[in-house]
Structures are given as C-alpha cells and as structure tokens.
Amino acid sequence: MLNNDPLWYKDAVFYEIPVKAFADSNGDGIGDVQGLIGKLEYLKWLGVDCLWLLPFYPSPMRDDGYDVSDFYNVAEHFGTKEDMRKLLDEAHSLGIRVIVDLVLNHTSDQHAWFQESRRSPESPMHHYYVWSDTDRKYEKARIIFIDTEKSNWTWDPEAKAFYWHRFFSHQPDLNYDNPAVREAMLHVMSFWLDQGLDGFRCDAVPYLLEREGTICENLPETHDYLKEIRRRIDEAYQGRILLAEANQWPTDVRPYFGDGDEFHMAFHFPLMPRLYMGLRSELCDPIIDMFTHTPDIPDNCQWCLFLRNHDELTLEMCSGEERDYMYYTYARDPKMRRNIGIARRLAPLLDNDRRKIELLNSMVFTMPGSPIIYYGDEIGMGDDIRLKDRDGVRTPMQWTMGQNAGFSACDPAQLYLPVVSDSVYGCQSINVKSQREMPHSLLQWMKRMIEVRKRFPAFGRGSISFLRPTNGKVLAYVRRHEDTALLIVHNLAASAQSVELDLKEFAGVRPIELLGEARFASITGSPYVLTLAPYGYYWLNLTPDRSGPESYGIEQTAL
Amino acid sequence: MVQQAMDDHDSNVQFVPEAVHERLERAEPVDIVVGVLTCNDKLTAPALTRSLMEGFRQYSPGRKVLLVNCDAGSNDGTSDLIEQAAGDKAACWTVHHQILGSSLHVISESGVPGREAAVRLLATMSDRLDAKTCLVVDGNMKSADLRWPEWLAGPILDKGAACVVPRFMRNRYEGTLTNTLLAPLTRALYGKRVPYHLGGAFALSDRFIRSILLPQPWDEEIAQCGIDGWVATLASAEQVDVCQAALGPRQQQGKPTGDLATVIAQAVGCIFHLMERFEDRWEPVKGSIDVPTVGNPTKLGDHVGTLHVERMVQGFRQGLRDLVPVWQIVLSEDTFQQVLELGVEGLEDFCFPSSLWVQVVYDLALAYHDRLLHREHLLKSLTPLYLGYTASLVLATRGKPVESVEQELERLALQYETMKPYLIQRWRWNHE
Predict the structure, then answer these.
(1) In B194-285, beta strands by DSSP E
(2) Which pTM value belongs to this model?
(3) What ipTM was assigned to the predicted interfaces of this complex?
(4) Inter-chain contact A555–B315, Cβ cutoff 8 Å?
(5) Looking at the domain assignment, is residue A440 inside a domain?
(6) Angle at CA of residue A108, ends A103 and A114, nearest 5°
C-alpha cells in the first residue's frame, strides 16, 4: 500500500521508464504497459518508490512521444487506457507510485487541435497556437535544438502563417495566452489524475509563454499559470505531485517552487555535469560551487537528482570552457555528442568502472534531493552511439541473456531499436537476471544503497554542510535531520587518499558505517583521519548512541 | 584396528611434551587425575584447588589423586599459587600445553587458549597413569564447592558411567542458544537429554578416554569447534552411559566471550560437523531418554537480566536486509518464504514459530552438509535468525511464570524430535 505522507516524494527513489523500452508483452517489438506490469515485482524488489513514465500518448513518434497527438489516450502499441488503470492499481498495491510526462508546451502538428487551428484564422481553435505573419518576432529566444532547427518559426502553407515552436518544427507551441488552452490542459491533467496517476513530470515548463523583448523563458505569466495548475492539484488531488523540467540555473529554477505553491519538485540540471567534472578533475570544487549557488527551497519542495536520463547529458548550463572540458574528457568521438550535450549512458561515460559508477551513485543518493535512476543504469547498461538522435540511450532493457535480451519474443528485426550487442555491454554480459543472482553485482549494490537510504530520512530531508578538508580530492559533507547526523565522504581520485576532517562538534561519537554497520574509531577533539580507497566512499552515522552499548543482553549467556 | 590404535597411541605420545613424558615414565599410577585449566587465574584457581582437594579427601580419602595444573602461560603466578593451595599432601604437577595459532580464535568458556590441547594432554596423562577418571575443571570457576568431586567423579567411579557432563543452574533467559538449539538438537539426534552446558567442569572415564577421546583426529577441526562441545557431542553420540552432574550456579571470573556470530558458528558448527561422522548413529534414533542426574537439580531461576528484545528484532530485520541472498541459498524455499514474511510484523506481533525455527536449524544443517556456502559464513548467517527466535520466545513468555519458559523449551525440544524425519529425508536425498 502507498504511504500517506504528503511529503512522500522527499524520501522517494524514482525510476525513469520509457514504456517502449522496458518490456514487450505482445511480441510486436515495442515495449508496452502490460509488459511493464509484468516487471513491477522487479521494481518493487529493487526498492523503487515512484515510476516516471515517458509519454505514452498517441503520437507520430517523431520525438519519441513528446509530440503528442491525443492527450486523452494511450498509443495503440503501448496498450489501452484499461491497461494503464491496471498498471496504476497493481503498482499502488505494491506501494509504488506512478507519474507520467505531461508535455505542456506543445503538441504534435498531427494533433487535432493544430489541424483545426491551421485550417482558418476564424477557427475556434486557431488561437490554440502562436501564429504570426512574420518570423522576426521574439528574436531574443534561443534555438534549443541547434542540430536540426534554424529558427523557432516555421511557415505553414495551409495557414499561410508562421507558427512558433521552441523545439522541433513538428511540435507547435500551445498558446497559453489563450484561456481556452489553459483550461484544456487543466482538463487533461484532471483526466489522468482521475485515472489514479500520482503526478506529472511537466516537460519544458520555462517556455510556455512568449513576450517580445525577452528570451521567452521563465516569464512571470508562466509562473501564474503553473500556480493555477498547483491550485487544482491541492484542491482536488492531495498527495499528487508536479515535477518541473526546467533546464536552468538553480537560481532561475527557484521561482518554479514559488512559496511552496508551484512545483513540488524540480530537476537540478547543472549539478549533473559538475559531478562528472569533479570526478574527472579529481576535485570537489565544481560540486561544492554548484551547491553554493543553489538557493534554499521551501520545506515542502525537493530537488530531483540524476546522473543520466533519456536525453543527452546536457551541457547547456556549462560555460564554454566547462563544455569543452566535458567534451574532451567524456565525448572525444563526435558521434557521442548531441545538441549541447553527450548522448551516452552512465556506464560507458565512466569507462564501465564499477568504482566510479558506485561513487557517482553514492553522491546522487546522499546529496539533498530525491534520486532518479534511469532504466538500465542499475545494471550498467551500455549505449549505441551509432543510432540517430538520442536513440542510443533508449535501447531495449536487458533482462536476460536470451533472445532480444528477454525484452521481446519478436523477430530481432522487428525491435523498435536494436539491443546493445557489443561484447562489453551486450546482454550476454549485462542483464538483470544474472545480476539478481550475483550477490555482489551492481544491481545488488544499487538495491542495497536504496535500502540504506530509505532508513535515514536525513538523506531526503536533511540539511547539508560541506566540510572543507585540505585534501581537495575528498568531498565530505554532513547531512542533518532532527537528531540524525550523517557524514558522507567521497574520494574523487583514482588513487587512495587520506583526509583529516574537523569533527570536533561530534567528539565522543563513534561513527557507524551504514553499509556494513561497522564501528569506526571514536571522534575526539583532534582532526578525524580517514583513509579512502581509490573512488572510495563512506556513509557514516554520527548520531550519538543514546541507547547504551549495542548489546542484545544475551551474548554473555548464550551458551 | 590394532594398527590404528597403535598409530593413535603413538601420535598422542608424541604430542606430550618431553618434560611431561619423562615425568610420566617415572610416575606411579593414580586413581584420579584432576586437571585445572588456567591462564592468569590467580584470583580463583587457588580457592578452586583447595575446594577440589578437600572435596576428594572427604569423598574418597583412599584414592590417589594427582592434581595437574594445565597452564596456558600465566604470568601472574597462578601455577605457584595452585601448588601452594594443593599443599604437601597432594601430588601436584604443572604442565604447559601447546597452543596452536588456529585455537587462538576459538571462544573458550574458561579463557584458556589451546583448550583442546590441554584436554588432550590431561587425557593422555590420565591414560598413561592408569587413572580411572579424569576431571577437567576451569580455573576461573568461583562456584565450585566440596561436593563437586563426588558429583563429577562418583558416577564414573561408583556407577560405571563413561562421562559426566555438567548441568548448571540457569536463569530463565540464560543459555538461549543452548536451550533453543544445542541441547534440543543433540537430544533429537542422539536420543539423550544432555543439558549441553559447555565448559566449567566435566569428567571422563578411563574407557571413554582410551576408546573414544584419544583416538579423535585432533586436527584443527577440534580446535575450531571447541573441545567442550566436541566432548559433549561425543558423549551423546557414542554408545556410552552419560550422567549429568547438577553443579548449582556457574560463577566465573572474567569470562571472555567473542561476538555472538562467532559463538554461534563455533558451537553449532561442532554439532553439524559431527553429524556427518555419526550419521549412521543418529538416523535410526527416535525419541529421547533422560540421563541420570547427580547433585542438586534445580529449575530455571526467575531472574531476568537486561534484555533488549527490540534490538534483537532489529538484528533479525538487519539480517533480512543483508542476508537474504545467503538465506535464499541455505534455506529451503518454504522456510525462506516463511522467514521473509516475519519481516513485516511489528514488534508486539512478532512471532517466530518454533516449528519454523526447527526447520531453519535443519535446513542449515543440510546446507552445511551439502557445502552450499563457505561453512563459517553459513553458520554466522544463523545469528539474525537466532535473535529473531529468541526475541519471539522472550515476547511470548516474559510476562509469565518461569515454568512457562520451561514448558516452551520442552515443547521446542519435542518439535525437534517430531520434525526429525524432515531432516532425515533431505539428508538421505542428498546421498542418492
């Protein structure tokens, strides 16, 4: 059963799933909702609290479903609305929540609204989209998909006008200056919340409105509408959440939390590249600097932290120099680059080095926020950089070493994308079944970390204070919540490191390592010395033990 | 057989230190060897010695007693003090036994390292001196009284018993590992209701020493299992008469123990190890019988020490978090599922059924036999399950009279006997 804490999302571990990539139940080569239902037991076993499903709506699939042609249905190849309701029921019965992508900013050009809109300026739906006689308006707005788009305006011969789009030209932006559009999208949300969904990951929210002379991002009017959405949630759908996709600096994202009356959660985009930067440069500064520039958020809000997702590892929030560094260190082959970022999965980015994979996951699991695991990263899946766009990181989930990696019973030629087949990351080497059977696999390690994280609300709700040891290769911080204090130490270096930490305020405490329950030497007034293996890490509980010695009372007399 | 016996005899002779060997060559036979095992026990060993010597003078004044202080290298003058305490009238030898590196890790009830070598040395000396019985007493015992010599040696000298094992007075939740596993499992296996109280004191007859104890392999296995458990199990498994001596409370000076997992691995490992050797012996045994008792038999005491039941349940749950992959290997599917289901119960509702506990123990014995896992890991994985069952026992009985604990333990012992076919069937399958 679901826990009824309204702040459940602050402690939750999220898991991102493109339905098409997870499990195919009917053998057509495309993952579907029934297939996902069949894998809920696995997700429960792993310890996942909430699934984030990528768009499953009917779509011409020119942008992987983010080009929605009908908000009220499920794409035929994914299943039916009945399947979705069954998924929600079964997930809830296992204590797992489900949020889905809601593409607020735009629709597909195949959506009935757009077809009607382009038909005539007199059409009642004409103003559902942003039309113009000229393509010289809003010129300060940047072009996001620079690889494919030359302008944010595209001429529509049928309407004989330009239409506005911040993403692909086949994705016309909705016109949120039109009250009918605002109400229509609220209606869409209510429809799915009534089916039992637990919230939405709202796609591309900074771009909802346009104003001349601005970059058309993060406008006050956009926030007004988002607050309207939140009011609807609070009034009628308590416990459901809104998660913002706003690829912006933390200071620019901060307004999306409002006063705790807008989004419940937002992704922390700029942190992700800095984790990779810190690891490669063996310096903790990029990571600490990012937190220094992260403003406080309201108590009922939460950051979402991630290492990878279905898009490229975005470098939009990096300076030119940082971007060059990231390309140089993580994507020397141009085939690895997409738009302003790197389209690779976690394991290949980290040279499949288990130590680095654990280290970065350890950071994401212990920093302020709720972690999101991208499907397949829990087993260290690889990618296929030969595939177009970002398809390389969207290949079928590898369940077994059998045909099609156990993803589908179809002819391999029918698969929506080929299974990764190289010798390092192919399903013979990387699959769920083997890793579930191996006690020390990456998958088992992830499960263990999730379990430990759940035992300590401080990870999701606590404050963070960075220690500044002289050894800059060691990242150390204390998470505090109520009576609990946890010390987290990471060695970003490829060599063993020793570090002296100022823990005077915890003098007398005997740290307990959370993963093995081992007791460390007591803290005194002197600097506390720790040694860490290359890419090693510790999660240490510094909470004073007020219950006396950890005895059961039977040790001395057991025999 | 004759050649084997000669080989055993030769290896035991070689084992005896040269100085002791020379002394034995010149020594006259004795009736009784009293071995006192010590390691820096100056606070207790002298009084213990006086008690034992006086006890023998009262119980059996005509018999010739040799006191042997088997010392593990005391540097507090223990041996000198023992010799002084023995006085001029009693023969008293001090000997030093070998201490193998492997035995340093063994949990010793008496804190004497190399305890198995000490017992072997005493048994060899007893055999060479034609003693009718050999007592082994821990030098750190504070509760020995003048009746101990009679209670320990009497059944052997006067009634022909082969082995006398101790039965101490325990409080209601003392000896939980003994009472919930070691004793009832041994009882179900071999049909003798021995208390399986390890250490303190025991006595062996000359026949037991010659035909059973000295021919043991005396390899590292004995050291790792602990000689007390080894002797108690042999006494149960072999077709010999065993007697239990009710020695009153067991009070010891500074009893050293290891962590709980190590204690469990050692004590349970001993029984599991010998199950393999004695499989033909225990398979046909059905039911169990009491063994004769001398001394002052008492019921469980009512004192409850400081028990942290919640912590025990947490320990069990910690096992559910950490050891599921191990338990999945060593437990049967049915047992494993039942154990998993216990994880969802709250503290007050926590109930680890005795039948499930017995099933767990039998599954682990089978897994040990089948070498499904490194044996030490396997044995240590029992710890959280033991905590769970013990917590459940305490929760079920803590508000009730002490008799209810005894009844519960007796029900458990019968459960072991009733469910023995479960063990036998699976043990046999593995042979086929």
Answers:
(1) 201-205, 242-249
(2) 0.62
(3) 0.84
(4) no
(5) no
(6) 110
